[in-house]
Amino acid sequence: MMMTFSVFPSPKVSDTVVEPYNATLYAHQLVENADECMVLDNEALYDICFRTLKLTTPTCGLNHLISATMSGVTCSLRFPGKLNSDLRNLAVNLIPFPLLHFFMVGFAPLTSRGSQNYISLTVPELTQQMWDAKNMMCAADPCHGRYLTASTMFRGKMSTKESSVCEIPPRGLRMSSTFVGNLTSIQEMFRRVSEQFTAMFRGNAFFHWNTGEGMDEIEFTEAESNMNDLVAEYQQYQDATVEEDGEYERRRRRRTTSPKMFRKFVVNLNGIGEYHLQDLLAYTMVCGYLCLFNFARPGLCFGHTN
């Protein structure tokens, strides 16, 4: 199994004109060879650094965002616990169709470095931030698409007698949450790159740079076709409608919980033991998919389910 954390370009934050070529060519390889791909978008990363972290010249701040997200996503792979999840389990639970293995990731809390020690967040606040488009590492609005699958990982306080790893949390970060979701709205980013690639490829702009290095035109054609197929696949499931079949419709309604019910559930969960329950699991249905929440001490693993 191969998991990648892939950074995609944006013309808003870069002046390198050949980036659409590079992005389309490596997206072609990700479709063919990668099993799970966490998509990171330069446009979203810069926007978080400017607006949320209040950085005037983002440099190391970009790497800080990526490293925090990578740490949260891979926590259950690196630390022991009752709910360990390997790459195969993650793929089984988050990939409904083979081609759709590109995930949007988010992280919370995101605050400026100077105010980290003065902010205390609750689980409902973390949850609200985690599902916010402003905390996503990809410049695509989740409200414009559908959630196919999702997984959330929470890190926070619990009893010390049950744990012997990572007793000291990161400085200024006593509690955090990480979001991994398979959303159809990620096609916005792929379509943006595809349109830029097509405009340059049709005009043979800077094409000689690549042919001079031994590449062939057929490689570009295949990469463009793969990118268009990926966008069409996401669009297909975004436009899919549910047949008005009685039994299926009743089952679908039983699996669906409104956002208000979800927020009420989290608030009520907050009042039980105040985050000190060991391996506290809560299953809830949100928009038709199942999420598994595990409140644990920093460093312990987290669970995923479909």
From TrEMBL:
<keyword id="KW-0206">Cytoskeleton</keyword>
<dbReference type="InterPro" id="IPR000217">
    <property type="entry name" value="Tubulin"/>
</dbReference>
<dbReference type="GO" id="GO:0005200">
    <property type="term" value="F:structural constituent of cytoskeleton"/>
</dbReference>
<keyword id="KW-0547">Nucleotide-binding</keyword>
<dbReference type="GO" id="GO:0005874">
    <property type="term" value="C:microtubule"/>
</dbReference>
<dbReference type="InterPro" id="IPR002453">
    <property type="entry name" value="Beta_tubulin"/>
</dbReference>
<comment type="similarity">
    <text>Belongs to the tubulin family.</text>
</comment>
<keyword id="KW-0493">Microtubule</keyword>
<dbReference type="InterPro" id="IPR023123">
    <property type="entry name" value="Tubulin_C"/>
</dbReference>
<dbReference type="Pfam" id="PF03953">
    <property type="entry name" value="Tubulin_C"/>
</dbReference>
<dbReference type="InterPro" id="IPR018316">
    <property type="entry name" value="Tubulin/FtsZ_2-layer-sand-dom"/>
</dbReference>
<comment type="function">
    <text>Tubulin is the major constituent of microtubules, a cylinder consisting of laterally associated linear protofilaments composed of alpha- and beta-tubulin heterodimers. Microtubules grow by the addition of GTP-tubulin dimers to the microtubule end, where a stabilizing cap forms. Below the cap, tubulin dimers are in GDP-bound state, owing to GTPase activity of alpha-tubulin.</text>
</comment>
<dbReference type="GO" id="GO:0005525">
    <property type="term" value="F:GTP binding"/>
</dbReference>
<dbReference type="InterPro" id="IPR008280">
    <property type="entry name" value="Tub_FtsZ_C"/>
</dbReference>
<dbReference type="GO" id="GO:0003924">
    <property type="term" value="F:GTPase activity"/>
</dbReference>
<protein>
    <submittedName>
        <fullName>Tubulin beta-2 chain</fullName>
    </submittedName>
</protein>
<keyword id="KW-0342">GTP-binding</keyword>
<dbReference type="InterPro" id="IPR003008">
    <property type="entry name" value="Tubulin_FtsZ_GTPase"/>
</dbReference>
<keyword id="KW-0963">Cytoplasm</keyword>
<dbReference type="Pfam" id="PF00091">
    <property type="entry name" value="Tubulin"/>
</dbReference>
<dbReference type="InterPro" id="IPR036525">
    <property type="entry name" value="Tubulin/FtsZ_GTPase_sf"/>
</dbReference>
<dbReference type="GO" id="GO:0007017">
    <property type="term" value="P:microtubule-based process"/>
</dbReference>
<feature type="domain" description="Tubulin/FtsZ 2-layer sandwich">
    <location>
        <begin position="83"/>
        <end position="195"/>
    </location>
</feature>
